[in-house]
């Protein structure tokens, strides 16, 4: 296989595609001429675009997710890449979480990624090449105060991608984990903190999209196992 297989127009799935990092990745892929199956909960602000197929799916609803994934893979057997991005944050001391809140957080930040990979990896293996890019978090590297549940999900996701990398390489499928630090998106809208006000205090969603394009466009024999990105100066600003 030559590099053309990875740089020519492809069909890729993006989860969490309607907002934030996922939206930036989706738009970048479309601008480069790729087709995107975009999965998200709300595309009200999106117009129809060439190469874009929107799928409204609640990825945290694990009871219905397998059916949605089966429909997507049946409709797009020629898909040869996926960017698993969806997630949400909730922070606090462990005793501040209800049991249901813990379950919900694990569903959206860990289990739905595993479900999506379970559905998509067979397609990628069958094609003989492809990319599975997972958007993780700096919380996968160091557990932080009030982040026990969130970090547990991200640590587990990191181990999952490491194992999957080993499992898939013999079939020509590359697996990469990207761990961003604080990114200036609506992720913080419902939280009591956010990045500092200066540009150097937060990554941009476009920075993550640039990194995804680097991974996808690299020589097919090259794998970026894990990429960590952080703002130049980490500043956390608490809201009133």
Write the layout of secondary structure elements.
Blueprint: H1 4-7, E1 11-15, H2 20-31, E2 35-40, E3 52-56, H3 65-75, E4 81-84, H4 99-127, E5 130-135, H5 148-168, E6 173-180, E7 193-195, H6 205-217, E8 226-229, E9 236-238
Helix pairs in contact: 2-6, 3-4, 4-5
Write structural notes for this entry.
By secondary structure, the protein is an alpha/beta fold. The protein has a 7-stranded parallel sheet, with helices on both faces. The protein has a two-stranded antiparallel ribbon with strand order 7-9. The chain contains 6 helices and 9 strands, in the order H-E-H-E-E-H-E-H-E-H-E-E-H-E-E. The N and C termini lie far apart (55 Å).
Can you tag this structure with a few keywords?
single chain; about 240 residues; two-stranded antiparallel ribbon; disordered N terminus
Helix content: 25-40%
Q: Using the alpha-carbon principal axes, give the shape.
A: globular
**Total helix count?**
6
Mean pLDDT: 91
**How many strands appear in the DSSP assignment?**
9
* Biggest sheet overview: 7 strands, parallel
Poorly predicted parts:
1-5
With strands numbered from the N-terminus, the spatial order across the biggest sheet is: 3-2-1-4-5-6-8
> What Rg do the Cα atoms give?
17 Å
Secondary-structure element order, as H and E? HEHEEHEHEHEEHEE
The proportion of residues in beta strands is: 15-25%
Span of the ends, CA to CA: 55 Å
Structural class: alpha/beta
